[in-house]
Amino acid sequence: MNSQKIISLISLILISCSSENTKQIEANLLIEPNFEFSAEFFECKLNDGYTLLNLESFLSTLVRSDLEQNNVKYDINVYFPKPNYVNQFVINFKNFSDQDIYNYILDRLSRRGFDEIASCKFTDKAY
Questions:
Q1: Cβ-contact 36, 96 below 8 angstroms
Q2: In DSSP terms, which residues pair with 121 in a beta bridge?
Q3: pTM tops 0.85
């Protein structure tokens, strides 16, 4: 009885490993890219005399005014790579429109006085 189970198990393994298996999964069909937005990252540091409350207030006002004007569709996230040091952070702008809003965002930040609150490294986009 025991040898019959072993023979059945070996037969099952050999059949499943057969090269005649025509059902294959193509991995490239499982992944569908999502190109609904583009993203920009800015490394920043709070200037002396300013806090996260100043940063949050500034960004909230900026987004709220753009939502009211319905100019462009974007989202802002702020990340803190060093959990115990909140003076350095990364701002992520996600652009949900088909327009390149990189210069628009930089202009909005500059005109509203973001340079007073934080210093950032902006990449030079040359097309």
A1: yes
A2: 43
A3: no
